[in-house]
Design brief:
The chain is an alpha/beta fold. It contains ten helices and six strands; from the N terminus they run E-E-H-H-H-E-H-H-H-H-E-H-E-H-H-E. The protein has helices at 36-51, 66-71, 81-98, 109-118, 122-125, 131-152, 156-161, 182-190, 213-230, 237-244; strands spanning 2-9, 23-32, 102-108, 170-175, 200-207, 248-253.
Length: 256
């Protein structure tokens, strides 16, 4: 079974006044249950190396916030760019070495607001905020990834016989207090897109991000995806490194 850790970025509701947050992002970091202990151990080791203590203990932050780390804010305001870069590279290295896949979905918030104002898109009119259609696309993307994963393990005879055993499942790990809610899973599974999502466990596990290495790493990926979407013409070495090393695998837009 895969633990699918949800990362978020760009959550400002329907507000589009902030030019740096024109997109809302969900990322799903797939960590197989057999690797979860080693990922946690490696993350805790790098925290001791960079902070002198595990997260939450004296001298260390409670959680690594991507915007603070990247821009040198909050806890990281006294860190040099080189020191912050070293920590970011160490965090990304955990995922790159394992080629842990990340599935991404995003929505352009201005397009959503414009479509709502026009009132001629029945699908978009179902939602009050961009989160609704984004969640739907995100769960659909996870289901597609699981389908491809399960199909890849089938023999030619299995495919010809129409036998599709579900060998891989995913449990969504969301953050307490973030935008993902338990009701979204039930709504998706009742929808036309979700009715065949057999590999997706029909519940969401909620955790505190400060206690979840996977969610903190997924948040970091979501932040770099949002920066890339904001201005794809600029250099984005962190995003490029994740994509070129098979971490960021697919990016699904909500089509409006």
């Amino acid at each position: 079974m895969f633990l699918t850790y949800v990362g978020e970025s760009g959550l400002t509701g329907t507000t589009v006044n902030d030019p740096s947050q024109g997109h809302q992002i969900y990322t799903g970091l797939f960590i197989h249950e057999s690797q979860s202990i080693s990922v946690n151990g490696e993350f805790n080791a790098l925290c001791r190396r960079h902070f002198g203590a595990p997260l939450g203990e004296e001298g260390a932050p409670n959680v690594i916030r991507p915007v603070d780390l990247y821009q040198g804010l909050g806890y990281f305001s006294s860190w040099t760019p080189a020191k912050r870069n070293e920590l970011m590279q160490d965090c990304l290295g955990i995922m790159i070495r394992r080629e842990t896949p990340v599935i991404t979905a995003y929505i352009n918030k201005q397009e959503f607001i414009d479509a709502r104002a026009a009132g001629n898109d029945d699908y978009i009119n179902r939602w009050d905020t961009p989160t609704g259609p984004l969640v739907n696309k995100f769960f659909f993307a996870i289901g597609m990834f699981l389908d491809e994963l399960n199909m890849s393990s089938l023999s030619g005879d299995d495919i010809m016989d129409g036998t599709v055993p579900i060998a891989n499942h995913a449990l969504v790990m969301a953050q307490n207090g973030a935008s993902l809610e338990a009701k979204f899973m039930a709504e998706f599974l009742r929808s036309d897109e979700g009715i065949d999502a057999t590999g997706l466990i029909d519940d969401i596990c909620f955790v505190e991000s400060a206690r979840s290495v996977g969610n903190q790493l997924s948040n970091l990926v979501a932040y770099f995806v949002r920066r890339w979407l904001q201005n794809p013409e600029r250099p984005h070495p962190y995003f490029d490194g994740l994509r070129e090393n098979k971490v960021i695998q697919v990016i699904y837009p909500v089509n409006i």
